[in-house]
Structures
1.
Amino acid sequence: MRQSHLLFLLMLCAKGTVSAQEPAPHIVLFFVDDLGWMDVGFRNDRLHTPNIDRLRASGLSFERAYIPTPTCSPSRASLLTGKEAARMQFYRHIPNTTKHGFTPEGRTTEAFSNWPGDPVQLPTRNWLPLEEVTYAEKLKAHGYYNMFVGKWHLGHEPYHPIHQGFDRQFGTGNQGHPGSYLAPFFRHGNPLPEATEGEYLTGVLTDESVRFITEYDRSGPFMLSHWYYTVHGPHIGRPDLVERYTREGMSGKYAEYAAMVTALDESVGRILKAVDDKGITDNTAIIFISDQGGYFDNAPLSGGKTGGDALGEGGARVPLIISYPGVTTPGTRTSVPVQSIDIYPTLLEMATGKSFRGENVQGVSLLPLLRGEKMKPRKLYFFRSYEDQRSAVIEGDWKLKRYHSGTYELFNLREDLVEENNRYADSPQVAKKLRRALQRWEEQVGVR
């Protein structure tokens, strides 16, 4: 018995040693701007996204992934830090306009701005404070080289990616969106002045990410954060793709938008091919997520980026796919509600192989779901500026929305995905429980 017990312990130790010696994965994070939950080919057959579809087939698709504050800058702050944006006083996007006290180049000396007329009369941040700890800073401490490509929208030059844990940045300016997707891209502070007139922005950024992967020669792992400007407006598609969709019966802004989605898909495909050509596919984790819901029709989901219902499923629910070779089972799906704040601890667990125990981080690691295991149920909280809609909480199938005007809406998303049947009056116990939880959260966060 003693010999058997000793042999068992030795086997466990040997297994632990092998695990400890497994190399940390390279990581590629695709962060898309304004791509709706329905704006992918595997959910909408009018859009051609074969590469994103293949990515979904290679990993785990999260059917209920959400953004805590579905707005540009707050969404980015949450992804970087694992925190609910409202806790960092990120309530609205950084305006970058002279009307709000910024220079034409998108700079300001004021840490906060106010928005007259906004129901949320709280000062919102004009940059991500350097004191906030980003996933890049954490990964760097574990030997990662961090490359950032694309849109930042979390502050001007002193607060750019290279001051927030990233080793290099490319194509990053102060503005939240380009003036055009055809070069020259920006009217002021153009970060890509060498682009040839007429070049397409998505392609220029993709060229750099492909170059980075191809030429990477360091011994340690890399983390590539490819944050797209697309598919944010102005909706200008690549001409050849616009022509393709026009031939298929689309017209105007819809053909332009569809062309942008397919150009995005081609970009994803080129970067994944660079990973494959490098021979590192089996040791590269891929994450694909959007920063908020879509601008156009999100049916069957209600709401969207605009129109006063950004906390509707069409505004807060986004595509999320994670492919982690050796961990995720290809072609699987989960309906467990998760948020973008969960990416931060997930990245750290991927990098270290250890359970994440972070202070003041609301996100939780998604590794259990990636392994096909269960996660402890929890509530997800949301906050919104700009319109009457104020906050929301999701627990399981139930979702409660609160409005500045004092009204509440309660929906059972399993039975009513389109959020048409308000159950607030006929489900008083559920309504009371979630209302109290939401009130406590608002008080804790400081938005009550």
2.
Amino acid sequence: MKLEIERKFLVEVAVWEGADFSSAEIRQGYFQSGEDYSLRVRIQDARALLTVKGQPDGITRKEFEYEIPLEEAEEMLREFCRGRIIEKTRYYIPWKGFTWEVDRYYGANQGLITAEIELPDEQTEFDRPDWLGREVSRDLRYSNESLARCPMPVK
């Protein structure tokens, strides 16, 4: 088990365009989750993960993550996550000692772009890139699980 401490922001500008940042294609789906946890399966390029996350306490929550066979992840997405799947491209953008994960969503969340930064603790300070918009760390509508259930496309 690890603690996940992250802050999430909306992104106003496509910061990766014309740049050579590494990226990954992600498809992830959510099972029926309990009141105090979420369970997801993720396929990221050719790797598959099963993840259990506790409810957030501020910007911190518990996370358990396990690598699983790709074929089983595909089957789980088909059989157990129908209607609760998000698709996105994740860009890894280094910025002043941290790596920002910038997600560009497709499908039902078309046009939405978010950026997350993982921190060693809640008190860690960081410089905000000028392409960040409003912080949505505590706005549960922007959690990936919520976006899978209630999409928020940007027009």
3.
Amino acid sequence: MDFNNFKELINKTRCTRRFKENQTISKQDLIDIVDLARVTSSAKNMQPLKYIVINDKKIVKEMADRVKWAAHLTSWDQSEDEQPSAFIVLVNDTSIDGFVMVDAGISLQTILLASRIKGYAGCALASIDKEFCKKEFNLASNLEPVLGIAIGIENEVLNVVDVQDNDTNYYRNDKDEHCVPKRALDEVLLGTY
């Protein structure tokens, strides 16, 4: 993969909140994606993250129904026919010392990129129902859900747009396309020396 292909992959990898219904993602695809996440960098190489892959339709629906999908889109909530086909839950093993949020960020991006390469889209969710996950998946007391990633076939147009008036809130435009404002390079690049 050359730099331009990688740049295109990064630009196409946005959080998707509307998915095509009645799609199936194989458990093996999800395991393949987690297998990549597990070998990424880990702070102090402590590797406190564990993973749960879910493609059981009943459990996926229960999880999707419990998520707050878009904090900045207050008048929108995901409908049943827009729900994902799968979830991956990142779980912190608190018996292992580490910087779990650093690892979670690295793992999350790896999962989203790997999903995109496999033809799927994803959405990172801090708003998963962590208590539901603990009970549903029989997690031991040292295992704490950190993030969920919804995965499915994208069913919306996503646009990266320039930040206007310092407003970074994502929104839907008049065509109902999801727009994600990003700061300009000259705003975030503090210097070159």
4.
Amino acid sequence: MNITIIGGGNIARALLGGLIARGNGSDALAVVEIDAEARATVAARFGVATFSAIEPAAVVNADVIVIAVKPQNVRIVARELATLLKRQVVLSIAAGIRLSDLSRWLLGYRRLVRAMPNTAALIGAGIAGLYALSGVDSEGRSRAAAVLEAVGSTLWCEREDELDAVTAVSGSGPAYVFYFLEALEQAARELGFTPAEARR
């Protein structure tokens, strides 16, 4: 499966690492990243093709195109991508961008999947809720899921608004656990344990 990731930040790097670890060849992966330093880092670390802009060569062979940019940049990305789409599945992991908006920005394109991975994806232990428009067939759904399974588990949602619930639990849940662990560490210190002992 050929995958192009638009954006070269932390989640993109986690996806690349996970995909390569699961047997995807680096020659089947590409990244579009406007920042020269980030682009060079991705190329050196993962050995994938990199592009400084969205262009035909970056997406023509892709089965899945992952939009992994900040939400405020999705509309710009969509405008640049709109005329280059054929049958690719477009997987957006940009927080808060509804597929109705993305479809409109992509000139009515409907092979769209939205996903919300949590921060645990950065260490390959994440969970992501996914929602697909009706234009995505079973093969497209499988491909989108395979991308995210490189960094954890997946859960398909029947309605897009269910992604908010998944995000509330899987995204915020780890924060509650960390908060609890910090409280335990602080309690141990107050009982006389050294910081190193308290962290154990």
